[in-house]
Task: structure prediction
Amino acid sequence: METTPILNLLGVCKRFPGVVALDNVNLSLGSGEILALIGENGAGKSTLVKILAGVLQPDAGRIVLDGRDLSVRSAADAAALGFGVVHQELNLLDNLDVAGNLFLGREPARFAWAGPLRWIDSAAMVRQSRPHLDRLGLNISPRTPLAQLSLAQQQMVEIAKALSQNARILVLDEPTSSLTRAETYRLLLTLKDLSRQGVSVLFISHRLGEICEIANRVVALRDGKNAGELPHDRIDHANMVRLMIGRDLRSFYVPASSTARRIRLQVRGLRTTAWPDQAVSFDAAGGEILGLAGLVGCGRSELARAIFGVDPMPAGQIALDGRPLRIGSARDAIDAGVYLVPEDRRRTGLIVDMTVRQNISLPALRRFASMLLIRPDRETRHADQQVRMLQIKTPSCETPAMNLSGGNQQKVVLAKWLGMKPKVLIVDEPTRGIDVGAKAEIYRLLRALADQDVAVIVISSDLEEVLGVSDRVAVMREGKIVGILPRSEFSERAVMDLAFGTASATAASGGGDRS
Amino acid sequence: MKKELGIGILLLVLCVAVAILNPQFLSTANLQNTSRLVGMFGIFSIGMGLVIITGGIDLSVGSVFALQGIVLAILLTRAHWPWPAATAAVVVGVVLLGVGHGFLITVVRLQPFIVTLCGLLFYRGLARFISNDETRGFGTSSFGLLRPLAAGKLGPVPMPFVVLLVVAAVMAVVLHRSVYGRYLYAVGRNEEAARFSGINTRLVIGSAYAVSMLLAAISGIQLAFYTNSVSPSGHGLSYELYGIAAAVLGGCSLRGGEGSILGILLGSALLQVLQNLVNLLGIPSSLNLAVMGAVILAGICVDQLLASRAKRTRKPA
Result:
């Protein structure tokens, strides 16, 4: 489908402290086009959506709509310009009914002269709601309390709300991530319908199958840059994966050196509160890096948190070096030498307004104390030593952790554990949001640990990373481990097939060229 | 450290100004009385400070004073318990209230504000009920060493002030040098990250409420003998707010994770000097609370202005 673009983004840049989220991104959107935006986690998709929604301001670049430069300074601006943005987290009030949500802030009024005391004209609101709901084939009463609707229906209400404000460009950030297959199908039909009516759709999804079904064109982002695009006839699973992963990071990865391995961590029949119906079993050996791959939300982090004792573990056994281990709290795991570098370093990995020294010493504080009093000399010596060893770039140990770059913050989290002789180290998304140089250093560190007979478990949504860094990769889907690949069977395709489930991977290559 | 310096200077300026305007300020009697009040208020303010550092609050302190005073009076003057037994019973009982608060906050996961607000209502009501809403006095008996310890003097220095210095020294070491103290700051700044570092956050937070009540029990005994009679409806009324004011004035943030013993000490002293100023300068005593409120507000505004200026001039890393 060739149409003249109505929206053009030219050279859009956005940087956050320590991270370049968008680097010179260009994007065009035609009238009535369905454009899919794909990329790994952290590629910059959500930042782009927030810029279109007026939540974030770009540092540089132009937004051109109908040939005119414009700036989107607020959500109200975005709506007035014809952008309808449906975020991953729905922005609806569940104490209002459907009509109340559709017209929130623009309620039809009686006694309009009364200013803020004017009356809401409920009858008119209900009347005016109907056509918007009908247009989406939404068969519910405008009077229905929002809380009674399913998530899919609520999403439709959000779309109806955007359309009721005359949105010409609909931006959907992972609209199907929490929908069932049938609900997804209905949503996709609706989007196709809207595109026929001339509405342009910018659609973000991790589900490659649905992109194959509806997208006219695919644009991929990688590390905040344009990574290429696919015209309609070249959209298929393989091409999209190639675009998302693309860059060759292989030279960064240090291969395993040891061969003789003994099992250090044994997990048997572990259930998490997130997936109580699935029992997970696996082994991790000293000297190896075990990758844990899978889609976001497949239960990898929950598994790690349960092993580390910060989440309850409804069932299962864990053994360390052949001896059973009872873990009821993080303290138990730490005392045993099982450590976790959590996914969200600013919320759970670090206390950002404490100093580098205080962060590094926190889990081992009792070792620097005599008679329960901290010996500052011992604490400082330990912190200095870790900072030197991991080459953490910080003005001093007394700098608050929040002043460090993302990569150096991550190294501080690692430093907490490396000084405590880990036996098992689980790292959850160790390189999310940090630059390439720091990534390479972290890969080297993890390999060095494995060479010291530590069992290292790396959770990563970055396929290239998890395949590059690991000696074995366990793939999870919907709370269970669906396969463990040895290095000889490593391929992006193999991981994807397991992660999506073979059926959906087949559907994803509906474009036709799966060989 | 800067915060403490600021409030220290403010305290000093205030003292010098009052001393110049009314030399009575430096009279032995006035200094003794003021330091006695600083002692009594300072001790429980330190406890309040610990709770605030964990990110919580304790609104029950004033009502605990009333309940504790009534029970102590009944045990000593009606039941004729020996003074060590009565004192121990009251202190243990009050600490157990703190343990209860800690349990409700950390295990049942109720909000500190709500838990201790209910305590404020409940203990006050209980005090009034068991005393038949009548004032209970201690008379003139000294109850062994109890009265001299609670309300006497060590040389020229009132006992509460002496006890405050001891408590402050001990708590300064606990808060600023011990592992437990570091854990208090850590849970106050980021409870989740503290938990991920293996800290038993429930124990640390819960214990802060128990320590707060222990210090309140000490203040409470001094207060009971200071007034020498306990009116169940008015004794200690809204004193928790003085504790909160002292802690906040001294640099504790209600967001948690910030504050020092020195700051709380200076904050408590400043509040008492302000009261004293109102009396000595002939300001109508009905303006007492208004003056205190205005000075605290002004202090915190200045602090905020300085903090945001410091942030603006700091170079981004």
